[in-house]
Write a structure and sequence with these properties.
The protein is mainly β. It has 3 helices and 61 strands.
């Protein structure tokens, strides 16, 4: 359940104000006692919410920062609609743990009860894992250990990932890792985390004492990329682009050398690793074993090594290997030489699903049999006691020994992480003289700072340059008593530095650094000391005194009371309802002696409708948030219904008997379409109005309204004529079509054009602008009445002819008048033509 929730009360803001809930306890300690304040005038009693899950007894869990429906981080919680802690009967040997993740955000942390261990003891922790998920490194099961002292105090880093099983695992996969307790250790808590999206199963968990640890798996200076993510087989400067550090997702549980580990390269994936510059004067052998376990796009492997003569074509930096057997290992070997001493990396591109093991580049010279590839068997090495970081790894030699490899560059995002390691040294006496000695080799650019060694924080070796063969270094020092000797790789680029034969000795030849050759002793295991690894009992969550309709149950956990004696179990009701299929939780019969109920609960996610069942009759809360029971009711069942995901706990039932109305203290109101009517009085005990008689709300007087969709949304709805409330609202999506009208921007005149623009009369959006042609001149007496422009066709009347001719003949006068009409007609015709 969510650590910091909101308080939920049925249908009443007044009740919300009346309820308070204290904060939950630490997520690792369980829930403390919580208090509630009931509404005034009510007596309260708690209603139990409890369940059980036998298979998960001995385990606890919490979720952190998974997101709610609104996308908000939820902090610490014990419930989630996206993350689930379950048990299943379909385990490897019986029951198993089932961690289900429906979304990738948020942490899911499962942790056991504490169990007793011995101090300074090696333990081998083993489990079987099956992951049904997408084949990606983001989907994984990780293991962590919380070590505790005598009083439960935490020792070390409880959040450090000690083991990981990445990607999809269709079959049960065994995984082991070692853990050594400190001198103060009393108990351990085993932590299992699931990441990504999918169904993750864990079974048969064991913790056994051991005389030694197991191999540490490190994949630095080994990269993996996908062609679909724009990774290429480039092994130069750009070779690191779009590449990632190899993870256990690309380690396959099959091997040619018996260690149950090999490299998995899927169709369209590229594996890369970097190594020392190879000398042009020497001969080398590339070798590995492979299986093609699934046919693919081209059924071949492509290997690229720049400046190496490995191909038979004109492009001799490439070699192809076709086909492969799915059942038997095929060995590939190729003798080659380098050219120009500019090598530093290899890329292997798969065009089918391949597994590869024992990948090596070995020098063939009589005086130099160096093997350069790190983690060539993909199973790690026995690094008990060593501390290391960044681009550090080991390289197994042909005689079975190991050399330490500290790099800088790598074909992934860790390029530039200068590798380092610290050797385990014990038994040095302060003030006594000892000798540190080791061999080193580095072949790369001469300007690279290639070998650096520190003793107790002070530099005792700093070498810049190349050492193409093994070179001996020796240095005497006086011990401080708690000495740290730290080695670093080169200052730049892909070429790594190799170290071997590291020894800290006294003048008698006694060796004080433990595990110098990384050779694990024969392991002797004790009996299993972990009591919670087989998940025995009923795998189902079983509710106590509650029944469910639809999808819902009581989920939770029982805290380990060994360190927190007062820690109480955390159970909550979780409902997974929808509008189509609501989910309900129904309590057992609860005796009541009063007729008025108020229900409250601590809500964490979602909302619920609360009601009471009296026989088969369901009674919902009224306007006060109260449930008013019929006369004579002796018991009820409480019902919580959700149409979404909802989770709540801490349920209380308040009961109350209203005070009698004072004389003349009743009020009568008419019902409307927004509130009930009837006769009521004020109860001085609960400070609410209590109805003696109720008149239901009147129906709404609805009028249908329709607005067409245009460039804006339209709508179909019913609107109440009285309260103006809107009902049955359907939004009609906008069509995007504007309704344009012309808007004059500038009027046209007889001297200049005008402009107008299309403007939508719905939304005001503006469209095209167009030109309005000039207006014609308004001529009068030879001039425009607007702009005073002269009429080019204007001819004034001839007054002289009129004076000479007089009025001698009406015929001639008529002829003159007709001639004038003809001339006028000609002028008008000409003007129209113009």
């Amino acid at each position: 359940m969510k650590k910091f929730g909101k308080t939920g009360i049925i249908a009443s803001a007044a009740l919300v104000a009346a309820l308070s809930v204290s904060s939950l306890a630490s997520v690792m300690a369980g829930a403390q006692e919580e208090t509630t304040v009931v509404p005034k005038g009510f007596e309260s009693e708690a209603v139990d919410i409890a369940g059980a899950n036998e298979a998960l007894l001995g385990w606890q869990y919490y979720f952190y920062n998974d997101k709610d429906a609104a996308g908000n981080d939820r902090g610490f919680s014990y419930e989630s609609e996206n993350l689930h802690v379950l048990a299943t009967e379909n385990g490897r040997t019986g029951n198993a743990l089932h961690l289900k993740r429906e979304k990738a955000d948020g942490e899911l942390v499962m942790y056991s009860y504490a169990f007793d261990v011995k101090a300074e003891q090696n333990y081998i922790i083993g489990a079987f894992v099956k992951s049904l998920c997408a084949q990606t490194a983001n989907n994984k099961v990780t293991f962590k250990v919380k070590e505790q002292g005598a009083n439960g105090s935490v020792i070390g880093d409880e959040h450090a990932v000690l083991n990981s099983v990445d990607g999809r695992r269709d079959n049960w996969t065994e995984t082991t890792f070692s853990y050594k307790t400190s001198t103060s250790a009393k108990t351990l808590v085993l932590k299992i985390c699931a990441e990504g999206v999918g169904d993750f199963y864990v079974d048969d968990i064991t913790v056994k004492s051991s005389n030694a640890g197991v191999n540490t798996k490190t994949y630095r200076m080994q990269g993996i990329g996908k062609v679909s993510d724009k990774a290429t087989d480039e092994v130069g400067d750009a070779g690191k682009n779009n590449m990632n550090v190899l993870t256990a997702a690309n380690i396959y549980a099959d091997s040619s050398d018996g260690d149950n580990a090999s490299l998995l390269v899927n169709d369209g994936e590229i594996f890369k690793t970097n190594f020392s510059m190879l000398e042009a004067s020497k001969k080398y052998k590339l070798s590995f074993k492979y299986k093609m376990i699934e046919a693919g796009s081209e059924n071949r492997l492509s290997i690229r090594m720049n400046y190496c003569k490995i191909g038979e074509t004109s492009n001799n930096f490439y070699v192809n290997i076709n086909g492969g057997n799915a059942e038997d290992w095929t060995e590939y070997t190729l003798d080659f030489t380098a050219e120009g001493e500019a090598t530093f990396g290899m890329a292997i591109t798969a065009y089918a699903k391949y597994i590869i093991d024992e990948l090596k580049i070995t020098c063939l010279e009589d005086d130099d049999n160096m093997q350069f590839i790190v983690n060539s068997s993909f199973s790690g090495a026995y690094l008990e006691g060593y501390k290391f970081g960044d681009n550090f790894n080991v390289a197994k030699q042909e005689d079975g020994t190991f050399v330490f490899v500290a790099g800088n560059g790598s074909y992934d995002s860790t390029f530039g992480g200068r590798g380092y390691f610290t050797i385990p040294v014990v038994g040095l006496t302060a003030g006594e003289e000892y000798t540190l000695s080791y061999d080193y080799r580095f072949n790369g650019a001469a300007w690279v700072n290639s070998v650096v060694t520190y003793l107790n924080g002070s530099e005792i070796m700093n070498f810049t340059g190349t050492a193409k063969t093994w070179t001996v270094f020796s240095k005497k020092f006086v011990a401080a008593g708690n000495d740290e000797i730290k080695f670093y790789g080169p200052s730049y680029y892909y070429w790594p530095t190799y170290y071997r034969n590291i020894r800290v000795t006294d003048n008698k030849g006694n060796v004080y650094n433990i595990n110098p050759d990384l050779v694990a002793p024969d392991v002797v295991l004790g009996e299993n000391e972990f009591p919670y690894g087989t998940f025995e009992g009923n795998v189902n969550y079983v509710p106590q005194d509650w029944t469910f309709e639809g999808e819902g149950n009581i989920y939770g956990l029982v805290f380990d009371t060994r360190w927190e004696a007062g820690a109480k179990p955390d159970w909550k009701i979780c409902l997974y309802g929808t509008e189509e299929v609501p989910a309900s939780a129904i309590s057992k019969e609860i005796a009541v002696s009063k007729r008025t109920l108020a229900l409250g609960y601590k809500a964490y996610t979602g909302s619920v409708k609360v009601s009471a069942l009296v026989g088969d009759t369901e009674i919902e809360a009224d306007e006060n948030g109260f449930i008013e029971l019929p006369e004579g009711t002796e018991s009820v069942r409480l019902r919580f219904t959700a149409t979404e995901y909802a989770a709540f706990k801490k349920l209380f039932l308040g009961t109350h008997t209203h005070a009698a109305p004072a004389e003349g203290g009743t009020t009568t109101e008419e019902a409307t379409c927004t509130k009930i009517g009837g006769t009521f009085y004020y109860c001085s005990d609960c400070e609410k109005n209590v109805y003696i008689e109720k008149i239901p709300m009147l129906p709404h007087d609805l009028e249908h309204v329709h607005e067409d969709a245009t460039c804006r949304d339209g709508v179909d709805k019913d609107v109440c004529k009285v309260c103006h409330g809107e009902f049955n609202v359907t939004v009609l999506p906008a069509t995007g079509e504007h309704v344009y009208e012309k808007e004059i921007l500038k009027e046209a005149t007889c001297t200049s054009n005008g402009t107008e623009q299309d403007v939508c009369k719905v939304c005001g959006s503006k469209g095209n602008i167009s030109v309005i042609p000039k207006k014609p001149h308004d001529y009068k007496d030879g001039k425009c009445t607007v702009c005073n422009a002269e009429d080019p066709d204007y001819k004034p009347a001839d007054s002289e002819d009129g004076k000479k001719g007089g009025c001698k003949s009406s015929v001639s006068g008529g002829a003159i008048a007709l001639g004038g009409l003809i001339a006028a007609a000609f002028v008008i015709g000409k003007r129209k033509k113009d």
